[in-house]
Specification:
The chain has helices spanning 3-14, 35-45, 73-82, 87-94, 98-106, 118-125. It is mainly α and 127 residues long. Helix 4 (87-94) packs across helix 5 (98-106). It starts with a helix and ends with a helix.
Length: 127
């Protein structure tokens, strides 16, 4: 696990659950991070793998809001295939509809992270 993933996991474990629908909360439930989400978060924060980060105190109830970069259809297909899932399995595990997954992978619609149940998928994908 990278330094960023280790620090991110420690930070996420200290934060309470948030109801903020516009916030993306990435919570690592096991020792291994999902490469796709770690990469997206790193890009959004402008970090590079192995880069030292300045320690900052964050209030315990502060939600983390991360604006993710655009995910291309090829990215979606790659992520799903890395997890070894069909479109149907991916939709079920991440709480999206099969129709949405197909539209995201075909490029008809941009990926809507609000429709994905990232917590459940993260637990599944890291086992």
């Amino acid at each position: 696990m990278s330094l960023f993933a280790t620090l991110w996991k420690k930070l996420m474990n200290k934060l309470p659950e948030t109801d903020c629908p516009t916030c993306l909360r990435i919570r690592y439930e096991s020792g291994k991070a999902i490469l796709a989400f770690e990469t997206a978060a790193s890009r959004a924060l402008g970090l590079k793998v192995g880069q030292q980060v300045e320690k900052t105190k964050i209030p315990p109830n502060a939600p983390i809001c991360v604006e993710l970069p655009e995910v291309t259809p090829a990215d979606m297909i790659t992520y799903r295939q890395r997890l070894g899932l069909t479109q149907e399995q991916f939709a079920t595990k991440f709480g999206a509809s099969i129709r949405d997954v197909r539209k995201w992978e075909s490029g008809e619609e941009p990926v809507d992270f609000d429709k994905l149940n990232l917590g459940a998928g993260a637990v599944y994908a890291t086992r």
